[in-house]
Amino acid sequence: MERDGKDILCALRGLAGAAWQALLDLFFPPPAGCAFCGGQAEGGGVCPACRDLLAAYRERVGCVVCGAFLEDGAPAGEPGACAACRKKPPPFALARSLGPYEGLLKAAVLRLKFGGECWLARPLGGLLAELARAFPAAAAQPVLVPVPLSPGRLRERGYNQAGLLAREMSRALGWPLVEALVKIKEAPPQERLTAKERLAAPEGSFAPAAAFTSGSEVVLVDDVITTGATAAECARALLRAGASAVFVAAVAGARRA
Ligand SMILES: [Zn+2]
Ligand SMILES: [Zn+2]
Question: Tell me, which fold does domain 2-256 have in CATH?
Answer without folding.
Answer: Rossmann fold (3.40.50)
